[in-house]
Amino acid sequence: MNSLNSVLVEGNLVRDPVLNETPKETKICNFTIATNRYFKQDEEYQKEVSFIDVEAWSRLGVVCENGLQKGQGARVVGRLKQDRWNDKEGVFKSRLKIVAEHVEFKPVFSKEEAQARQEAEQVDLSQEAVANVVTPELDPVADSVI
Question: Do 68 and 11 meet the contact criterion of CB atoms below 8 Å apart?
């Protein structure tokens, strides 16, 4: 029985995708996406960036190579795969990547539009923090006069 291994990641491509072939002529498209996470620390917003390698096989790989470009947003659904090997000096190495099963392309924006969207995202985060403040609600029945 297989264990659950499913991941969904959304981010922007760091560079243009690269299409390669296996010796049996199966297409593999490799690309890296950057995901941003914003959090508040000491009354100031911080940004954490993660770079995630993705590989898409066969027809999905060809579609990704033709439809994606550096800076474009993408949502990837797939599974984690761990590559393990020994380098030339015999040191054990390992790397996690996503093997894509489904990729959604986001629209391409100009730099000005992207900057405006990012600023709007940060404003939404600060408004979300205000919205998460718990305020007591009045019970209309308890406050009514009999």
Answer: no
